[in-house]
C-alpha cells in the first residue's frame, strides 16, 4: 500500500511537470511522456526505474551510517560483523575522499531504485527548464 501512495505522489508530480499520457494502473505501474520538441523524426527513448524495494528486509527502521571523507579500506557495517570491502566492491577505490552513506548491516538502505526515479525526474525537469535542448519523445 505504501508504494501505491508513493506512486500517486509521483503521478501528481508528473502532472505538475506537464507531462502527457500520465497513467497509473492498479498494479502500481506509472508511465508518462515528455513529448518531443523537434519537428523531425527521432526515435523515442525510455527511462525505467522501479518503486518497490526488496522483500528480503523491511523498509522500516532503516539505520543509515555516514562515512565522511572515505580514505579506502573496509567499511564496517554496524558493529563490524559485516564489512563493505574494496576486494568485493572494487568501485570503492573510485570513492576516496567522498562522503558515503551505507546501511549499518541490519536493514536495507532503502534507496534501491528510488535513486533512479529521482535521477529520471531530475533529468525531465532539466529538459523542461531548458527547452532549447532538442529531444524526441521521452517515455518514463
TrEMBL record:
The keyword S-adenosyl-L-methionine does not apply. The keyword Membrane does not apply. One of its GO terms (cellular component) is cytosol. Keywords: Hydrolase, Metal-binding. Its cofactor is Zn(2+). GO terms for molecular function: metal ion binding; tripeptide aminopeptidase activity. This is Peptidase T.
